[in-house]
Amino acid sequence: MFKSVKLLFPRLSRHYTAKSKRVVLGQDTTKIKNYEPKLSGAHQNRVYVWGFQETGALGLQTNIKKSQERYTEMVHHPTRLQFSNNNDITDITAGYGFTAYAVNRSDGETLFGSGINTDCQLGMQFKPKKKETTNLDVIIYPTAIKLPREAGDTDEGMKIRCMSSGRAHLVVVTQNGTVFTLGNNSYGQCGRPIIEDECYNGSAVIHRIPQVDICGEQDEIVSVECGQDHTMFLTKQGKVYTCGWGADGQTGQGNYLSAGDITLIAGDIEKERIVRIASASDCVLALNEHGDVFGWGNSEYGQLDDSPDAEMQINSPRALQLTKGIGKVKDVAAGGSFCMALNDQGLVYTWGYGILGFGPFVEQTSKPQHLLPPLFGRNDFSNATTVVSIGCGVFHMGAINSDGDLFMWGKNRFGHLGLGHKKDQFFPFKTAINGKVVKVAYGVDHTIALCQPHI
């Protein structure tokens, strides 16, 4: 019986002539269509925004009435900013309810902003009607911030080198080496004398400081970092200068006083070349060229010292012992009650108090613990993927991997994780952005991402 089945169903085979084989195996590659994606914009960079929108910080609305409607309160998914389609945006910063953009434009305007402007942190912005000269407290679409110019200031020189924003102040450094500070100066965070009972609403004060007055002629400012109410400047030689609120020691000046004078700080970093400083609130982390971590400021949750008799506020830079075992560190970030570090192996470490990325049952650890690489996109099909930079806001964290993907976790009350909901996220989760993420600005209730198109 089995033999008859074999006869009924002979084994099929396919035969090719020698010429046919050559046609199949030697495909003409010149006839294969080369797909070139069409970019939907003339500019290389694009910006995506999400989170709390009622402050105007997202800059999405152009209609005041629509911006006040309830259904526009939050944007839960990353949304492309129309302003970035029409302008070449080179840098971003997110404050508490406001955003600033560095741009390259032919008309010479280099700085734009949107969001809360109650303390004139976005400059003087008047209502459009000529009869009304009242300053705008809320700006719903990115608007030019007029930086005061002096004789000799060129459009090229007024382009933005670096910038940062705090709770209600904005600090900008231009290419010609000038520092501009705007907004609230109650604690000296704008680098000028504190004026008691100074009114910031409707104020036209934009303080201008020559770079040479801060770090001298032999050095230059390469980065600025604003905490909640203090400001820090990092120079090319690796020196750190600070001013502002020092109640938790976050200025690192060896005291707990507020200071309007921008001062060089010492402590354990006096002879070090610092390459990175980070602070989203009142705790500060600094990184030297060798990958060693230093810190000062608020340490109520053991962020800077996990010893039994540790101080809760540290007013002078101190070399951290708790990061000694995690290898050479190449990036750091400091939130309200937690800290982050990224080592040269691409491992992300978190510690302190909050949603640290280890699930809903781990909310505090006094020692840095690393998050597993698969949480950031590494798998069998992409085993070379690694984290390249980290950052955080006061209550949430983020990491960018080598593929340009952004992963976020933490508190999500205002939808600022961009995951489509308001639930807290206990593990790193990929945010859906149609672009390769280059930089992220973490506000207190909104997030801004500077991206490049996938090619």
UniProtKB/TrEMBL annotation:
GO biological process: positive regulation of mitochondrial translation
Coiled coil feature spans: none
GO molecular function, one term: rRNA binding
Record's keyword terms, sorted: Repeat
Pfam families reported in the protein's UniProt record: RCC1 (PF00415), RCC1_2 (PF13540), WD40_RLD (PF25390)
UniProt-listed InterPro entries: Mitochondrial_GEF_domain, RCC1-like_dom, RCC1/BLIP-II, Reg_chr_condens
Entry's Gene Ontology cellular component terms: mitochondrial inner membrane
Domain RCC1-like: 210-452
RCC repeats: 45-105, 177-237, 291-345, 346-403, 404-453
Keyword Glycosyltransferase applies: no
Keyword Repeat: yes
Protein's name in the database: RCC1-like domain-containing protein
